[in-house]
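This section describes the prediction task in plain terms. A model, or a person checking by hand, is given the sequence of a single protein chain and must write out its three-dimensional structure as a string of tokens. No templates, partner chains or ligands are provided. The sample shown here is typical of the held-out split.
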Amino acid sequence: MRRAIFPGTFDPFTIGHYSIVTRALAFMDEIVIGIGINENKNTYFPIAKREKMIRDFYQNEPRITVDSYDSLTIDFAKKVNAQFIIRGIRTVKDFEYEETIADINRKLSGVETILLFTEPELTCISSTTVRELLQYGKDISQFIPKGMKI
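The expected answer:
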């Protein structure tokens, strides 16, 4: 069984991340969406709310599960028996950084990383920007997947 994790960076309301998970499902048997827990990080949505949003949105997709973790990504991958890590890329700079991290992960744990670019029309906005817009009460409907409730 080909199991992958999509760790830490997943924002349930960001269409770029949704497209990455959707495309990864084309060649993975199962994806575990991991929510990184960092008590010191101020996030717009608490962990429990993020988890609920993801579960609600993907409820009709049995190949997706949600888990939270407070360890290294490679440790989380081992915990859930994943052979692959899915990472989203928006720019060439992101690619260069993630390629280096992927090489380190492979050497330390044997876990392979699959780098997927977001769709071209989604590369101009990051999940951080979407969170900021949301925090200031701006309309973000064009950046969230259809059917997602926030």
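For orientation: Residues 92-109 form the longest helix (18 residues).
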